[in-house]
Write a structure and sequence with these properties.
The chain is α+β, with helices and mostly antiparallel strands. It has one domain (about 5-90): Uncharacterised protein PF10387, DUF2442 (NE0471 N-terminal domain-like), CATH 3.30.2020.40. It is about 25% helix and about 30% strand. The strands form two sheets. A three-stranded antiparallel β-sheet has the order 1-2-3. The termini are far apart.
């Protein structure tokens, strides 16, 4: 069975996705920095597809599979926390 998005809503900190099988999945907006930074009217301009939700103006896509797996925005790259000089040099040294 293919689970589809039936409705999307937001509150102050979360995205709520209503699925065709009756489940409602909530995810923190912090998982999706583009949605978190967007104005409420921008969040409401989305399109539903068989795979999930798309925001053209925000360049954001959220798949049903990703939500069910508990995944946030997979395109965000986090800067690692600074380490001590010795650990930092060891982390940068090529292996082999």
């Amino acid at each position: 069975m293919n689970t589809l998005v039936k409705a999307v809503r937001f509150d102050a900190d979360s995205l709520w996705v209503h699925l065709s099988d009756g489940r409602v999945i909530g995810a923190p907006l912090a998982w999706f920095p583009r949605l978190l930074a967007a104005r409420p009217d921008e969040r409401e301009r989305f399109e539903l597809s068989p795979l999930g939700i798309h925001w053209e103006a925000l360049d954001e896509d959220i798949s049903v599979a990703g939500l069910l797996a508990g995944q946030g925005d997979m395109t965000v790259h986090f800067t690692p926390v600074a380490t001590s000089g010795r650990a930092h040099r060891a982390a940068r040294r090529p292996s082999g």
